[in-house]
Amino acid sequence: IELTYQIGKVEFVDLPTHFEREKVIEGIINVTTFSGAPIPYKKVYVLEGEGSSKKLLLNLTTDISGLAKFSVAPPEHPTTEISLQASVYPVEKYQGYKTPFFTNADTRIRLLQPATPYSPVFSELKIASSKEPFKCGAEVPITIKYYIVGETTEHFSIDLIYIVLSKGLIVHHGHEKVDVKGSSDIQRGEISFTLSVAAEFAPVVQVVVYSVLPSENVIAANKNFEVEKCFKNQVMRTSDCMYSLLMYLLFPVSQLSSA
């Protein structure tokens, strides 16, 4: 049996993982006994920083449920991270031998950075994925994204040639001309075409796209898409089958013929 002198713990709950400039950081502190029972009306403190450089931000008291709500201002520019600690001790405390203690709660909250666009080093093509298999008879849009990098020609156009294969046979093909302005920066864009899904395409179709750049470099991409299994002839809907069966039972063929 391991002997511990921990008598309680402090935890952060409902605390964001990122902060935004000029928007307060809000959270809740939970103080419980070692067994997990809430401790009401307990003094608890919020400190900022790490190690001996921590500074006291807030002096709080838990409610009847052992919870204490708080809010702190976000750090100013250019700081991109804030370290917070919730503790029942107002200053950094080192536990002595065989001394009852509460554990602290520590967290780091980082600045929410805007998502940066995908920036490849070399020119490339990408075919957008599909979350679900293609359904028979559906008109499915296929999206192709292009990224052109480092072409020195000022203005040029390229042909994006696409081919759709099923069981080794070409079932669809086409091309689209794209005008590009030459630049050392990335030139990006997308095209799309519609694929009419036939029963013969199952279980998979492969989309291949390629293009030749003014530098004579070839860029290409391919992606497989699942196609649901289906019959070539459409199966009668269940409601239609039930209606036909009901008509047969109520009006035998002989009666229908004599009518």
TrEMBL record:
Coiled-coil stretches: none
Top-level division of the source organism's lineage: Eukaryota
Pfam families xrefs: A2M_BRD
SMART domains attached to this UniProt entry: A2M_N_2
Domain Alpha-2-macroglobulin bait region: 125-256
Cross-referenced Gene3D superfamilies: 2.60.40.1930
Entry-linked PANTHER family: ALPHA-2-MACROGLOBULIN-RELATED, MACROGLOBULIN / COMPLEMENT
Protein name per its UniProtKB record: Alpha-2-macroglobulin-like
Organism: Silurus asotus
Lineage, opening ranks: Eukaryota, Metazoa, Chordata, Craniata, Vertebrata
